[in-house]
Amino acid sequence: MIFVEAGTLSVRSFDAQLIFALKLRKRGFDVCIDATYFPEDAGRGRHYEAATLLADTEELVAEAVFILGAEEVDDRLLASLRQKQLGTDVPVIATGRFSTQQSYISAKSRLAFALGREATVIDLSDLQPRSISPSAISPLVTETRPITRPIGELANVTVVLGSLELDDSETLSCLSRMSNQGSYGFKLVVSGAQNEFLKASKFNDLPRVLYTDLSPLTLANSTDILAMFGHGIAGDRMAELALEVIAAGGVVIDCTEDEVLISSGAPALLGPKTLFALDGYLIGKIIGNTPHIADQTRKSPWLRTVDISRLETAAGLRAKPRPPKRTSPRTLFLPTNGVGLGHAQRCTVIAKALPKHMSPVFAAFPSCVPMVRREGIDCIPLVARSDVNDSSNANDILTYRRLNAALQEGDRFVFDGGYVFDSVNRVIRERRLSAVWIRRGLWPKGRSRHTVLRREGIFDRVIVPSEAFEELNDAYSYGEQVHNIGPIFRQVEQSPEDSENLRTRLAEKFDHDFKLLIVSMLGGGVASDRSAQLQAISGMLECRADCLHLVVTWPGSAVQAAAFGWKNTKVVHTLEATKLCLAADLVISAAGYNSVHEILYHKIPAILIPQSAPYLDDQERRARALSDRNLCSTITEAEFMKLERTVQVCLDDGGAEDFRTTLQQIELPESGVSAAAEIIATSWKNG
Amino acid sequence: MAVAAELRVATEFADLVVHARTSKMFGSGQHVAPVLQRVLDELRIPMVWDAPRICADFVILHNPSFLKFQNSLSAEIYAQEIVVVTHENFLRPGGEEGFDVSNCLDQIDLSTLALRKTLAPISAYNRETVTGWLSKFRKGRHWNVLEDDWFNIFFSDKDEPCEKPEDRRGRHSRPGFEKFPSVADLDLCFPKHAKANVILGANALMDTDIVRSHWTLFPFDAISLEDFFEMIDFFVYFTAPTWRESFGRVIAEAIAAGKVVLTDPETAKTFGNAVIPCSPGDVDRIISDLISSPNRYRKKVAEAQPLLERYSGQKFKERLGAILTADREALT
After folding, report:
1. Is a pLDDT exceeding 80 seen at residue B172?
2. Whether B87 contacts B123, CB under 8 Å
3. For chain A, percent helix, then strand, then coil, each to nearest 5?
4. Quick one: which H or E segment has residue B18?
């Protein structure tokens, strides 16, 4: 294990450690950073970057130690080196940019005092006489690995605004025009302040990432052309980004006021110093000429000065490219854990429809794991969000770690959920996965389209399972990657005899003979509290001796104690709710996507009581679409009298049969399961 | 302290002026050590801060490393001879530079017009580092090296050794990392079975939680040296192997306090037979032997203390006199 240390504790030092450690890992080395380096004010992005690197080094054996920022070596580092009691065969390499010979000697001496032997101290000013960032703590070295350009169908342009002021509305308009250019992809890299400014402006939809959202390496992976503005370079991370783009054969355009990249000798192009001229410059001079520019870049002697292998040689280390863990690609589904298990259930339906050779696996939250495994699919358990953790995204960091461990470049990743977690965003970008997003529609009023869709671009394919009725199918995004397909739901085969047998078993199990079977599926109260409705239904059915009322929930869902106090009402936790519904005379259900489509396609008479929450789809609109066609009855949460009347009509006055008749007659779109499976099976980046 | 003692001797030979310099090493403050100030006041020696020009027959410049964080001495020196007393070792064990010697000597060189420029090592080991540096870096070869050591004057009352020594060990130093050996060596020097392990100047150990239940740790200056020496019978002193004392005042103090001193062979060179050269692995055995033979313990101390006489003011006077007179004839 290589320990990456820093001369001092600071966010800047930690950034340098993170970036350098990731580079070493990419070169095939096992690396770690001692957890004590993690700064209190690390910010969201660094939590993820650090998640796979932090370790309690006391438990590990050092193969080598790299010390960054050795211009200043504090006593904490010296003490930790002394405590490590490193063997004499463990190389210790320190890097710094020493302004004087004395500062070099001081660093070397202090390290030697702590180690009891000499460290190899490398003055980066010697390696890089004209660094693009002379004050950088990071060694600013990398692997030269030109890749075919452009990365995608269009060249991706990344613009770093640096110290550029955004208060001029013309500037924002200009950026907006560029982001809508059809000739290239476009994104901004902004500071926190710039991001806040953009959020508050009319240009909130400008595609952008923060400096610390992604590692420079990951950002470079999605950049063909990088334009840097402002005065100087906007910090070590942006210097690293420029370096990575150059080393990967991309084009870097120096638009800085002080021409900082050009003056360092880096193979960059001198670009316009104003944003207004950038679009013309890109279209006229750069797009279309990128292969030629990359050829020139490759010949630059400057690349030699940033070659990471020189540091490795100094450390006596030899890069050992790791072969992939697996030779065959994997398809991994990640269903989010919504109110119920709908996302997971949808994913299992699609997964089972995939060609046999694909053998998909799941990563799922605890509530979904049994259901997935019950379908015979391997499942990596994730950790659910909890209020116990200090950080709201603590569980997502674990998800990131587990996805990172499970996936490798070339794998396919299927995400089903409304909000694209940071873990999902990162792992797709970092592992360059072929990614599919299953994203339902029917968003509630007021949901920000920009917020939901801002990460849509990371997916190669977007599968939109449609609603059964056309008026519910709002379009939220367009493009070749968006595939609108038929509804996806679980289809259960159950003959009338099977249903009759099930009713007999229920009567035996509950020791309760019945003629009428009513199933209520109103959720566990996470999104909307339906305990009052459940009590009302249980109460009105209590006087019917020939009735069995089942309160059906997913295993693990909470059920209020009051539900257990009725003679005719029984609580059932099951993953086979559809079978019970098929055997029922009436179903009273929430109007979630899965429930409604299962009711609809299985022709089950139902009363729908929509739930509502900001994170749910528009259940009432969905329910109304059915009831307007006399396929069910819709009862809102306050309509208790109507609920009682409707139940009575359904049970006593043939209402349920009327619904059944209409359901038999309605023409419904074809299921989208096969189409979804086909899209996933052919969603290779190069396929 | 050593410079203050030197002034008492030197004033017998000539009129003295002390020139003090502000230095980046010490920041912008102008501070004079109390012990030095007392001697200056007592002997009525004038002291001048940051004189732009220094003229004298002999200019003695103590410790050139004070220039290591700057590029210019900012003074002109005119003298028959400038003697630069090299308190800090030029090289560390292994041959790495102890500080940017070239930069410091260049500043002095460029500022000085003198018939002779001399480096004056303060001990045998210090001399090795000076000559070693000169042979490694050609640009310093015009500097002469004084044949005899410009030793630190050491004077102290001599305490009798104890009648019956016990396994009470200790060490005293400033708290820097360079002053301490590896943790493994510290464990060898100060083991659990010792009756006492007293470490004075243990700030770094305490700050970084390198502690043992059988160690008694004190920060630097937390107790007086008298109290410290009351607590021990053996002074066990090892440093980081990558650093070495140029003189080793703490060792001289321990000898004067009537303690047996154990240290590494290189550091021991300065003190000849007055200390026991050894490695940390030998410490237990040596201490055990001496505890079992109190007479040998007392004999060791009795033999050691007279050797401190070589660092007396009288000896220094003889040496300084020889230097000044011999050189004066040669240079005039």
Report:
1. yes
2. no
3. 40, 15, 45
4. strand B18-20
For A332, B235, B300, the CA distances from B303, given in Å and listed in that order, are 81, 16, 5
How many residues in total does chain B contain?
332
Cα separation, B181 vs B309, in Å, equals 29
Residue A379 C-alpha, separation from nearest chain B C-alpha, in angstroms: 44
Residue of B nearest to A74 (CA): B177
Binary contact (A101, B103; C-beta < 8 A): yes
What pTM value is reported for the model? 0.86
Are A116 and B243 an interchain contact pair (Cβ–Cβ within 8 Å)? Answer: no
SS (H, E, C) A489-504: CCCCCCCHHHHHHHHH
Residue position matching structure tokens 């360079």: B178
pLDDT in tens, A603-636: 999 999 998 777 778 899 999 999 999 999 999 9
Q: Which residues contact B259 (CB under 8 A, 6 or more apart)?
A: B161, B229, B232, B233, B234, B235, B301
Distant-in-sequence, close-in-space partners of A271: CB < 8 Å, separation ≥ 6: A227, A253, A254, A255, A278, A281
Per-residue CA distances from A469 to A462, A627, A633, A669, B109 (Å): 20, 12, 16, 8, 94
* Contact at CB, B242 and A79, closer than 8 angstroms: no
| Cβ(B195)–Cβ(B166) below 8 Å | yes
Cross-chain residue pair B210–A83, CB shorter than 8 Å = yes
Beta bridge partners of B235: B170, B261
pLDDT at B30: 77
In angstroms, the CA A239 to CA A254 distance is 12
A366: tokens are: 């605890």
Q: What is the DSSP string of B137-178?
A: -GGGTTSEE-SS--PPP---PPPPPPSS--SEEEEE--S-GG
